[in-house]
C-alpha cells in the first residue's frame, strides 16, 4: 500500500520549482505530475475498496460464528430443561468450536478494520495533497503562461528598436528625401522651360503687332 504513495510523496516533498527548472516545458511537466497523482489515487481507491470488502467479509463471518455460539448456548439450556443431558453436552461441545472460530475471526476482523481505517486515512491524505498540488499547478501554469507572454512581447518590442530597424528606417528616409528632391528638380525644370516658351511666344506676338501697324499705316488708318 505504501508503494502507491511513492510518486505522490516524491512530488510533495520535493521542491517543485527545482523540478520545473529541468523541464523543457513546465506546463506539460505539471500536467504529467497531476496525471501521475490521479493514477496513484485510482490505485489507492481500488486497494481501499478491496480492503473494506475483506473487512466486511470477516465481520460477517465473525457475526455468523457468534450467532452459532448464542444459538448452541440456548439449545443447551433447552436440552437441560428437557432433561436431555447428552443433547445439552453435544450442544455445548459445538458451542465451544464455534466460540473458538468466533474468537479467531474477531481477531482477523479487528486487524482488517484497523487496516481499513489506516488506508482510508492515507487515501484522504492523498486526495488532500492532490487538491493542494492542483491549486499550486494552476498557479504555476498561469505564471508560466504570463512569463511566456512577457518574454514574447519583450522580444517583439526589442526588435522594433534594434539597429537593423533603425538603419532600415534611415535608408527609407533617405530614399523619400531623394524622391522629393527629384520631384522639386523636375518642377523647377518644367517652370524654367515654360518661361522660355513664354518669352518666345511674346516675341512672336510683338512681330504680329508690328506687321499690323505697318499695314494700317499703308492704308492710312
From TrEMBL:
One Pfam family here: PspA_IM30
Swiss-Prot/TrEMBL keywords: Coiled coil
Source species, domain of life: Bacteria
Ranges in coiled-coil conformation: 27-61
Region of interest (Disordered), residue spans: 141-203
Keyword DNA damage: no
Biased composition (Basic and acidic residues): 163-177, 187-203
InterPro entries xrefs: PspA_VIPP1 (IPR007157)
Protein family: Belongs to the PspA/Vipp/IM30 family.
PANTHER family: MEMBRANE-ASSOCIATED PROTEIN VIPP1, CHLOROPLASTIC, PHAGE SHOCK PROTEIN A
Protein name: PspA/IM30 family protein
Species for this entry: Metabacillus litoralis
Amino acid at each position: 500500500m505504501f508503494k502507491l504513495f511513492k510518486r505522490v510523496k516524491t512530488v510533495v516533498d520535493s521542491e517543485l520549482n527545482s523540478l520545473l527548472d529541468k523541464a523543457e516545458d513546465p506546463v506539460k511537466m505539471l500536467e504529467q505530475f497531476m496525471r501521475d497523482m490521479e493514477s496513484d489515487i485510482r490505485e489507492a481507491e481500488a486497494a481501499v475498496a478491496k480492503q473494506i470488502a475483506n473487512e466486511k467479509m470477516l465481520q460477517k463471518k465473525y457475526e455468523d460464528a457468534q450467532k452459532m455460539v448464542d444459538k448452541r448456548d440456548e439449545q443447551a439450556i433447552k436440552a437441560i430443561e428437557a432433561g436431555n443431558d447428552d443433547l445439552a453436552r453435544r450442544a455445548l461441545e459445538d458451542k465451544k468450536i464455534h466460540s473458538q472460530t468466533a474468537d479467531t475471526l474477531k481477531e482477523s476482523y479487528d486487524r482488517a478494520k484497523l487496516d481499513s481505517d489506516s488506508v482510508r486515512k492515507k487515501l484522504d491524505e492523498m486526495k488532500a495533497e492532490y487538491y493542494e498540488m492542483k491549486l499550486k499547478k494552476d498557479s504555476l501554469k498561469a505564471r508560466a503562461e504570463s512569463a511566456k507572454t512577457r518574454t514574447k512581447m519583450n522580444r517583439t518590442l526589442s526588435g522594433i528598436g534594434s539597429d537593423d530597424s533603425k538603419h532600415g528606417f534611415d535608408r527609407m528616409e533617405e530614399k523619400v528625401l531623394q524622391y522629393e528632391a527629384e520631384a522639386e528638380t523636375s518642377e523647377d525644370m518644367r517652370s524654367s522651360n515654360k518661361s522660355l516658351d513664354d518669352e518666345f511666344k511674346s516675341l512672336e506676338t510683338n512681330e504680329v503687332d508690328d506687321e499690323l501697324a505697318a499695314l494700317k499705316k499703308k492704308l492710312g488708318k
